[in-house]
Design brief:
Helix Hairpins; Beta-Lactamase; 17 strands; 487 residues; five-stranded antiparallel beta sheet; alpha+beta
Length: 487
């Protein structure tokens, strides 16, 4: 009597031209016949590797998994009239597949599928169309791989088709497969998800701006352009997403907007500070006319003196405004500046102010010279010294200002220190703002320290103030070339 053992059944199934595939729960492959191996270009060893692994299907096709589960759930045959299956060379063909349950003790324990290749005119046409579509998409995929900007390509179901290395670098190099959905791989890019939906729905170009934090924690701005792509027959294929880093452009735009706002505030304050004195002068001139008409010459002289004082203050304000404007425009060569001769020049400029105030000026230069733009350094120290003299403490027996220098970590630190009135509470945060005054009874434009800040910024330096109680100290750190030997 002939015994029909497992080997006999295996040989019989291997002799079939139809593909036979046996699967267990979760679509795990248990066995496949020779026709199946030949179609996928697999050896028995490669099949064994799949069987031993936790693997759903060699095609990684979600529909296959769904079909298998249907058989397990219903315990009934599943007749699939036509399904597209791609072989080892990438060629696509259509098969008629029947999947049947293998039942033991009333439970479905395995599923056997038998697939027979179909051959008719309609199927061949579809197969040719499919191959043409793949050939059409190939250059797009190649373009994506070598694109100089971050770029990713998705199909109509928003599954990732391909992505450029720069995209993976900027937005994360997730493990992308042909079945990876964009929304799952890049969940944080919610605005891009919506834009892709709009692009696919309207079949039109969409452009948005997004913020994205890099792995280093840096916030970047990107202009993202989403465009539809089509197959050779005009059918919608999906969308391409191209990102352009516009962080620098965005920062410049923000800086420009801030500068415009500052200019508007400056214009308002400047016009206010100029209009007030001019209105007063106009009124006083009218009074002088009346005084002369009435023969009151002494009153006319007094009003004329008042006009002279107002015009002097107005002149100082105009000069300060011009100096503030020039602080942005000055551009001179960096030169070696010796501090002692510089202070001699500054003190000559301020000789009358120093003489009338009686303030003592001391120097303490641990560093005798430094590299910078001479005019800017002259303006910085000159304005700070002038302020220190102006805001001296009148009741104090001795008022002094000390200008010193020393080496710092990356350059030279200058210090202008005084024992004057000091800073009122809360003044530190606004001390370099334009048109800011902290002490009543002192004339001035409120622009001196704003001019200092402009020059400090132009030198790439840093300035800060310390409250000494009594007095204040302004410290300026001016960077120097690394190879410069300071005296």
């Amino acid at each position: 009597m002939k015994i029909y053992d497992a080997d006999w059944f295996r040989s019989a199934l291997n002799a079939m031209r139809d593909m036979v595939l046996i699967k267990g729960p979760s679509s795990q492959i248990l066995w496949a016949n020779k026709a199946f191996l030949d179609y996928y270009g697999m050896s028995e060893e490669e099949l064994r590797d799949i069987i031993d692994a936790s693997h759903s299907d060699p095609d990684d096709t979600l529909q296959y998994v769904i079909d298998d589960q249907t058989v397990f759930d219903t315990a009934e045959d599943l007749n699939i009239a036509r399904e597209n299956v791609t072989d080892a060379s990438g060629k696509s063909r259509y098969f008629h597949t029947i999947k049947s349950p293998i039942i033991e003790a009333e439970d479905v324990v395995r599923c056997v599928g038998v697939s027979r290749m179909l051959d008719d005119t309609e199927i061949n046409r579809r197969n040719i169309d499919h191959m043409d579509a793949k050939a059409f998409v190939a250059p797009l995929k190649s373009l994506t791989s070598g694109f100089p900007n971050p770029m990713i390509m998705v199909d109509v179901k928003k599954r990732v088709v391909n992505s450029s290395p720069l995209w993976n670098q900027c937005f994360g190099s997730s493990e992308l497969t042909p079945n990876t959905f964009f929304e799952e791989a890049y969940a944080s890019l919610s605005d891009v998800h919506s834009a892709i939906d709009e692009c696919l729905k309207l079949r039109s170009h969409v452009e948005i701006t997004i913020s994205h934090q890099t792995q280093e924690g840096v916030n970047q701005k990107y202009s993202v352009q989403i465009s539809p792509w089509e197959h050779v027959d005009g059918a919608l294929g999906g969308a391409t997403i191209v990102a352009t880093d516009v962080s620098a452009l965005h920062d410049k735009s923000v800086s420009l907007q801030r500068a415009n706002e500052e200019l508007m505030q400056f214009s308002y304050r400047a016009s206010h500070d100029l209009k007030g004195p001019l209105s007063t002068v106009k009124g006083l001139a009218h009074f002088i006319e009346e005084d002369i008409a009435n023969g009151d010459l002494e009153e006319a002289k007094e009003n004329a003196r008042r006009i002279d004082g107002i015009m002097k203050r107005l002149e100082d304000t105009v000069i300060a405004i011009l100096e503030l404007a020039h602080a942005d425009l000055k551009d001179e060569k960096v030169a070696r500046v010796s501090l002692s001769p510089l202070m001699t020049d500054i003190c000559e400029d301020l000789a009358l102010q120093i003489s009338e105030s009686g303030v003592k000026i001391d120097y303490d230069f641990k560093v005798a010279a430094l590299l910078c733009q001479p005019t800017r350094l002259h303006q910085i120290i000159g304005n700070l010294l002038s302020n220190a003299i102006k805001y001296r403490a009148p009741q104090r027996d001795e008022n002094y200002v000390t200008i010193s220098s020393r080496c710092s970590q990356n350059g030279v630190e200058l210090c202008v220190k005084d024992n004057g009135l000091g800073l009122p509470e809360g003044a530190k945060a606004k001390i370099f703002d334009r048109f800011t005054r902290f002490h009543a009874g002192f004339e001035g434009s409120g622009l001196g320290l704003a001019i200092v800040q402009k020059h400090v910024d132009a030198l790439g330096a840093r300035i800060w103030v310390e409250d000494l109680s009594p007095g204040t100290a302004f410290l300026i750190n001016i960077p120097q070339p690394r190879n410069e030997t300071l005296p």
